[in-house]
Design goal:
The chain is α/β, with parallel strands linked by helices and 178 residues long. It has helices at 2-20, 47-59, 135-174; strands at 38-42, 64-65, 73-89, 95-110, 115-129. Strands 2-1-3-4-5 form a five-stranded mixed β-sheet, covered by helices on one side.
Length: 178
């Protein structure tokens, strides 16, 4: 019996530790089967973001196609801005803190290319504390942080697509019969 109590106490402690560190399960992003497959398209500068969105949808069992003729929904993703701004300077007028921005636009079309929803803009911001004595580290850290930001942006884009698909699915259910 003492072993069982230890196990339960350890499990409770781990649960508290996990919740204290900010861990949270991502919600499932589902799109109705009648609105699948989805095609993701956009400009050349947003290819990395498009790939991240495809991954997010595939993780959530959403069928994704690269063929326009097969798609029931077309999500157009454009990376509008990735910016870096100085927030604070050190004594030698070097960046002590800076902010990174990633902004994307999402627009949803039907298979015929007619606008269904959007465009809407989503933005990720991150503050980074800089060590001016390690200039090589700043570039490496910025690229790692930007990759994380785009991944977070892709999650938000997938959630937006899910929301729009629910609205579209409700509209089709509530539409009067011909």
């Amino acid at each position: 019996m003492p072993t069982k109590r230890r196990y339960i106490a350890a499990l409770a402690a781990l649960s508290l530790l996990l919740s204290a560190c900010g861990f949270a399960l991502r919600g499932s992003t589902g799109i109705a089967d009648s609105l699948q497959p989805v095609m993701i398209e956009g400009n050349r500068s947003s290819q990395e973001l498009q790939q991240a969105l495809r991954r997010q949808l595939q993780i959530n069992q959403v069928s994704v196609t690269r063929e326009r003729g097969d798609a029931k929904l077309i999500a157009q993703v454009e990376l509008l801005r990735n910016d870096k701004r100085s927030i604070a300077l050190d004594r030698e007028a070097r960046d002590a803190e800076y902010a990174l921005y990633e902004r994307a636009q999402l627009t949803l079309y039907n298979a015929k290319g007619q606008l269904l929803r959007g465009p809407t803009m989503l933005e990720q911001r991150r503050l980074v504390v800089n060590d001016p004595d390690k200039p090589v580290g700043e570039e490496t850290e910025s690229s790692i942080v930007r990759a994380e930001m785009r991944e977070q942006l892709s999650i938000r884009l997938a959630q937006q697509l899910e929301y729009w698909s629910r609205l579209l699915d409700q509209d089709s259910v509530n539409a009067p019969a011909p």
